[in-house]
Amino acid sequence: MFYEPNEKKDHGLPHDPFKSLVVPRPIGWISTLDLKGNVNLAPYSFFNAVCYDPCIVLFSASGLIDDPQKHSRRNAEETGEFVCNLVSEELREQMNITAAHVGRGVDELALAGLTAEPSRTVKPPRVLEAPAHLECRYLKTVEFESHLPNQSHGVVFGEVTGVHIKDEFLSGGFVDILKIKPIARMGYRDYTVVDQIFSMAPPDTKTGAPPKKTGF
Ligand SMILES: Cc1cc2nc3c(=O)[nH]c(=O)nc-3n(C[C@H](O)[C@H](O)[C@H](O)COP(=O)(O)O)c2cc1C
Fold this sequence. Notes:
By secondary structure, the chain is mainly beta. The protein has one domain (25-193): Electron Transport, Fmn-binding Protein, Chain A (Pnp Oxidase, Chain A). It has five helices and 14 strands. A seven-stranded antiparallel β-sheet has the order 3-2-6-9-10-5-4, covered by helices on one side. A hairpin with a 5-residue loop joins strand 13 and strand 14 (191-193). The longest helix is centred in the middle third of the chain and has 9 residues, at 71-79. The structure holds flavin mononucleotide. Flavin mononucleotide binds next to strand 3, strand 5 and helix 2.
């Protein structure tokens, strides 16, 4: 099949398949503070790392143009800070609770029975139960207009100013991702868990020859 996803959306399927193709999408569980100091927590699967020197991440918040934007985005823009908490498999139900559309100022972290832990380089707290956290300084928002009426997507970029990894998830100096078991978003209502890995070294950058052993 072939379809044009933006103006035409002529896929003819019961659901738009695009979000089922670019998968899995890691989940950034974004904690922020509003200007009054209220905690906000919400999951974003249009989330990723952009580069690693400096370490920069993004999350994309969809919203109505003439309606208040998503709280995570507004808080990050207004206070200049946010934290990306990682979501492990055992936190999936709590993560889902924090996706609730509640009023601004309602603390979803408390709503989900989670514990707020102070951050080191920014004011928004971290989710204590999460296996790792990226503390971020807001950089900019890039706005993309939607083809749907009155909708837009604000892609929020932040520089990572501090990284926490719980010691129990480090094995022999490496992040033990099979112990963390992060969940990620698939299409429809599906998720996946990182519970399997394989290693493959890149070819030699000068000769193109396959390497003899795995490198980083
Ligand atoms: C797993 C998951 C991933 C989500 N990813 C996004 C996303 O990438 N962008 C978005 O705008 N909303 C996303 N949502 C919906 C938001 O979490 C939801 O609208 C939430 O209420 C926003 O909260 P906030 O206004 O406090 O930021 C996602 C929801 C779930 C459950």
